[in-house]
Amino acid sequence: MKEHINLCSFLAIDALNPLKTLSFLRHKILYIHSTNMYDNLPDEEIMRRNGEFYYVHMRAYVPMRDAAQISEKFRIPVSEIRATAEKLLAIGPDFAGDRGCGMSFWADLWKAIRLEEKMVLLRICRI
Fold it and tell me: Going edge to edge, which strands form the sheet with 45-49?
């Protein structure tokens, strides 16, 4: 949002009672972006296995097979898929001059994204 900071307003609200804070904006709100709404995001999981505790680390990736298909369909090198996605997020689906193409790129990319999990032992010091 850095590029649009001068157009943004930020308010801390109670998610259980948003009208308490937002009532002055009734019938005026065009867009709300809510963050920090979830307690247990995928990168904050802890699990117990065989008496030990582990952090569950997650990373998103696109399998090479899917990346190659996206590359071919949208005529962009595989190495440029991430930069293209970042450009789309910064500018919007019209970033390439064709909204339909931008929306199709995003839908194909989102469908291809997978999550990889890795368990990392959590060391707890006992005193």
Answer: 45-49, 52-61, 114-121
The answer to whether the beta carbons of residues 96 and 103 sit under 8 Å apart is no
Instruction: Tell me the per-residue pLDDT of 33-77, one tens digit each, with 9 for 90 and over.
Output: 666 555 555 556 788 888 888 888 888 899 999 999 999 999 999
Q: What span, in angstroms and rounded, lies between the C-alpha atoms of 119 and 46?
A: 9
Specify the pTM: 0.56
Instruction: Return the structure tokens found at 86.
Output: 């970042």
The H-assigned helical ranges of the chain are: 19-22, 64-74, 81-91, 99-112
d(CA 51, CA 31): 46
End-to-end CA distance of the chain: 45
